[in-house]
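As a point of orientation, let us examine one representative protein, giving the amino acid sequence and backbone structure tokens.
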Amino acid sequence: MADFLLLMHGDNVGRERSEDWSIYLEALNEKGVLRGGSAIGEGMCVRLNAPAPRTTDHLVGYVKIEARDLDHVHELVRGNPVYEAGGTVEIRTLPRTD
């Protein structure tokens, strides 16, 4: 099993219903794969000795899950309110560093 991030982009073409989030997150929790998540608000980029780039405005939230592999994660995206509304869900592996 490995950890993955689902990064939600703010590019929905359909309507995303807030009540669908509790249904989706509960389904992930019942499967034993949910490891956390949150909406992403305003922020800033900082850099020590040079100008920092702008923040990435299209990211609006994340969900951290544990899954067997990328194919398993792709299955777990079904029901995600952003995905179901036609938006982009970016799947990223969180490599183990131990």
Notes: The helical segments are 18-30, 70-77, 81-84. The first strand starts at residue 2 and ends at 9. The domain at 2-42+58-94 is CATH 3.30.70.1060 (Alpha-Beta Plaits).
